[in-house]
């Protein structure tokens, strides 16, 4: 609920704009409206000078139904004033349910102005989020979205609060922002497809006109986000226009992953073959680890193993010749998927510094295959606290899935100690504890930890808030759906 100061300011703005819209009609109406004295009219007009100027323009149109010269405000005006009156009532109540009801009724009236009287100046101003006198429609829409936080522990409230922390999208869009795309995916996964499309549409439009790309000029994220939202044809249409090996293979692999999660074995199989064929015909090199993972996901284990072993041999041969970087990080993940634990950890040790995401990805996969002791020992040596916490969360889930509650309990103690030592100042770590609690307890106690994560993020520095959005969203989607956001 709004603070007392914000309620007073909102009430004053609402009353000012309402007076601005009603008074011009009252002055023209003559004796019938003479209950209002000249001094009262003058005072109200002084308070709403800017609003009155706008109102005059609106009255000239009046929504296209009434006769403005007769002093009767148009239907768009009337709906607008009714909405402001509802907002004023909402500002003056301390009942959360009543406030929510009144604000939603006001929102319906604003929507009615736009749908029934699209030619009116009011509709134009509302659609473009302009001020109407002193009334800030954009602020009102934000207030409507914030109503989900009447239930402070709901997932939609969590999404709203994370969205409020994200750095705004620059327009025109020239970069495919993974934090905002993650927000769109999260809304889609949690049941608000309208909000998801609202966020997603400008990015899709930017890709179509060639305006959202990574440093190499290729879309890196939009098609991947679309695949998670179930928009497979559009995701493939975008992907198949990309000629860069890394982006093309990454997108195909992720679209196949999303298809396998939905149980579409035929599409998973077809995309695995397509990724392999494209990599072969375009001499893709380090992306072959992704191809091997995709083949394995499609049930083509023999092909995946052959491709993986040949790729590892080639990569090590080049490493010995050039003394450069050893191997792509995707090979470490593929080694864990295929069941080569020693090789997986050996590769992981060479790539983890530049690609810390590989640590929980590899260790979680090894633990799911029964290599729990090896994975735990490796996790304990990880220096970065947030990454170690994420690895513990992955290991806890793997232990529970393998029916090893004692091992999971031990890992929960380790994770809780990390959280306690950080004294609630690491939002990413708190989010990982929430994820682990969902896997361990399988109830709603994770919501308190996730709320603490958002609270910590909101109190953190601008630098932390800038980067924490996507990890928080990934953790929330994992908790609610059981499936990860894409690596």
From TrEMBL:
Keywords: Plasmid, Signal. Residues 1-34 form the signal peptide. The keyword Signal applies. The keyword Signal applies. It comes from the Bacteria. This is Chemotaxis protein.
